[in-house]
Specification:
Length: about 425
């Protein structure tokens, strides 16, 4: 009776697995953070190693599971059998034991060879990719007579410094002058050129984080006091989704970032736009009042707005905040959600397609983020849930600055509106 139930259960499992596999399609794999939809050579290599392992395990499952089911069915006790008889026919058979050991070693070698190869290749930009990826091959050194990078860098590939913080990422392009020291760093939205191999330097300023863009490459940890690196390359233009993959505190799950892949010529234009200072704010407007509040509410102590304020370097640079498609460490999306979902379902690029920033959504996100971040009540005095628990904004005591008293900023609805209007001018 028991063997009959076991046999039926085994066939049921086979049927369910078959139905599941038949129901899967390529479209089901093209979600925003799918490792099964690689868009670059590093991600493709990692995907191939994963699939090699999957096929090997599948073969082992079929062989072992098949033999188990066969043994249960073939040698099950039947009515009239003497169940007290125990056979010893397969015990201590050296050929079987040696065969199983050899097969196990072979399986390990089958997995180890591509794995070790992938680890070797993933370590840094391969020599074969350098000729087409070095700066002189795709990035003009001078534009309109202005030098874009030093002559000594011509044969180097593009480098990006990734700095992990609780709970956001800062991206710097030292060869191109986009650094935190130069007041031109890029928070939470990394931009890279299509088809170009890039060296990524990974650093952490507080705790361990992990850099991961599932469709392009990853994961590698960012460890305080240690220098790590990897290389990436994206083969398709689009908007990709990344996140921290190592638990790092209260808002680890909210520590996201975006990766925008542009054509090389568009990337050059983007760098030029990032070097520009913020435009002047029209007088006697809500934005002008918001600019005053930005200084009065001590936002300038942590944030930089090139051309307006330049003291802050601890928190994200806000010089071009209104042009970003996300906010609050990429947790709040500044695009129209319905329009974004619609284009992802209809565009040939699928999830890599992206709509532009929606001003109404952006303003609502700015008010929500500033008004509730790190505080227990909103502008109306009612209890509110933090957009990002543990966020340090409004609580300067957490910065451990000597002789700086704890402060707790509050905002009225009008002040939030003015601040949002000011920040929306920073494009």
């Amino acid at each position: 009776m028991l063997s009959r139930l076991f046999t039926r259960a085994a066939w049921l499992v086979v049927a369910l697995v078959s139905a599941f596999m038949v129901g899967c399609s390529k479209a089901d794999l093209q979600v925003r953070q799918s490792t099964l939809d690689p868009k670059g050579p590093v991600a493709k290599l990692q995907y191939d190693v994963f699939m090699d392992t999957v096929w090997l395990v599948l073969v082992l499952f079929v062989l072992v599971g098949g033999l188990l089911v066969y043994a249960v069915v073939r040698f099950r006790a039947r009515p009239g059998d003497d169940v007290k008889v125990v056979t010893q026919e397969g015990h201590g058979n050296p050929l079987v034991e040696i065969g199983l050991i050899t097969a196990s070693i072979g399986a390990l070698v089958f997995i180890a060879i591509p794995t070790l190869g992938a680890i070797w290749i993933d370590d840094d930009v391969p020599a074969s990719a350098v000729p087409t990826s070095k700066l002189s091959a795709w990035y003009p050194r001078t534009i309109s007579g202005v030098e874009q990078y030093a002559a000594t860098l011509e044969n180097q590939v593009l480098e990006i410094d990734v700095v992990g913080k609780q709970w956001w990422f800062r991206f710097e392009y030292p060869q191109l002058g986009l650094t935190n020291d130069a007041k031109h760093s890029v928070p939470n939205e990394m931009v890279i050129p299509k088809g170009v191999a890039i060296h990524i330097n990974l650093r952490a300023e507080d705790v361990i984080h992990s850099f991961w863009i599932p469709k392009i490459a990853g994961k590698v940890d960012l460890i305080p006091g240690r220098k790590n690196h990897l290389w990436i390359q994206a083969d398709e233009v689009g908007h990709y989704y990344g996140q921290c993959a190592e638990f790092c505190g209260d808002s680890h799950a909210y520590m996201l970032f975006r990766c925008e892949v542009l054509e090389p010529a568009d990337f050059v234009k983007w760098v030029a736009s990032q070097k520009k200072e913020a435009a002047p704010v029209a007088e006697n407007t809500k934005a002008a009042k918001g600019k005053e509040l930005f200084a009065a509410k001590t936002c300038v102590m942590c944030h930089n707005v090139s051309g307006h304020f330049g003291a802050g370097s601890f928190a994200p640079d806000l010089t071009h905040v209104a042009s970003r498609k996300s906010l609050a460490g990429a947790w709040l999306d500044n695009r129209d959600p319905k329009a974004q979902v619609a284009i992802e379902h209809t565009s040939p690029l699928g999830t890599e397609a992206s709509v532009a920033v929606d001003p109404a959504v952006l303003k609502a996100n700015l008010i929500r983020w500033i008004g509730s971040s790190g505080v227990a009540t909103g502008a109306d005095g009612k209890p509110t849930k933090d957009v990002k628990p543990g966020n340090r904004m409004h609580f300067y005591k957490m910065f451990n600055v000597a002789s700086l008293n704890e402060t707790h900023q509050t905002f009225t609805a009008e002040e939030l509106d003015c601040l949002a209007e000011y920040l929306m001018t920073l494009k």
